[in-house]
# Entry
Amino acid sequence: MKRVFISDLHLDENESVLRDALAHFLKTQCSDADELYILGDLFEAWIGDDDPREHSRAIVHMLSALTCSLFIMHGNRDFLIGDQFCRETGAKLLKDPTVISIGDENVLLSHGDSFCTLDLGYQKLKPILRSKEFQREFLQKDFKERELISKQMRGESKKQTENKDEEIMDVTHDAVLLAMEQNQVRRLIHGHTHRPAIHEHRLKDRVGLRYVLGDWRPSTTFLVTEDTNYDLRNFNYNA
Ligand code: MN
# Structure
């Protein structure tokens, strides 16, 4: 059983190189995979499954052609991915966090933003953005208006991120330990921070391993599990 884990592509219609990179990745790294997991932020912004833009349609089409099983988790930028997207791509939407079995071991999957507990501004905004009321109201607007609002919000968020300390943008040890203990796992796979690495954490009765996936600019770090073997790999699409 081969599983491939990626995240944080931040696909954007203004950067077609990333779309090509994904196509190349699926062809070269996933052709013999049984399952592909996209752990959030596939898109720089997803503002509704009714997105008519050519770029978005092309991604949906690309994913729908996959022969392996596809699992997708919301990131902080594409949490409006919904039923229609899943139907059209054949993806199964995973809750954040989700526990899956790899071999006979439970493994925790998450996008990772919920572990960044020092980012108080974002943690305060998150429940509002994720509320049914906000989402219903937003999705009722016509697509052009949604595009405008999304652009404004991204501008705001960029400004704020530039002023935030490096430490604030990373996960906290406490949040990671809590999630791993609560879910009784030894391994956690997540993205979001764009700091690919394997970290060791001292849990109550064991050593926990945390696999952090990379973003895609200008190359990416992704995880492959083959049966019970874990391998963090680099994919350089410019090579
Ligand atoms: Mn993210």
In short: The pocket of manganese (II) ion is lined by residues 40-41, 75-76, 111, 113, 192 (CB under 6 Å). The two ends are 28 Å apart (CA to CA). The mean pLDDT is 96. Residues 143-162 form the longest helix (20 residues).
